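pinned: reference chain
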Amino acid sequence: MNKQEFINRFKKEKLNMGEYIMVLDSITDEPLVMGCVFDGDFWKIYETRERGGHFVIKKIKSENEAFDYFYELLLDRHNYLNQK
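pinned: its C-alpha cells
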C-alpha cells in the first residue's frame, strides 16, 4: 500500500501504538517514535527509544513494500498491547 492508503487504514483500524507516536514526514530523535520516511534512495522504517536517538529497522526501495512492512510492524505491536 502507498503512504495515503496506509494512513487511511491506520485511522480506520485505530491501531494502538501504546506510548509511541507515528512520524511520516522526517526522521526525528524525539523519544518514543515509530516512523516510515523517504530518505535519499530508500524508505526507512525507524524507531526511537525513551531517551531519544533513532535507529533504522529496515530500508526498502519500494513505497508499497515499505508501508506494507510498517503496517505489519504496527499491527504486531497493536496485537501485543491488546492481549488479554
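why pinned: The beta strands are 21-23, 33-39, 42-48, 54-60. The helical segments are 3-13, 63-81.
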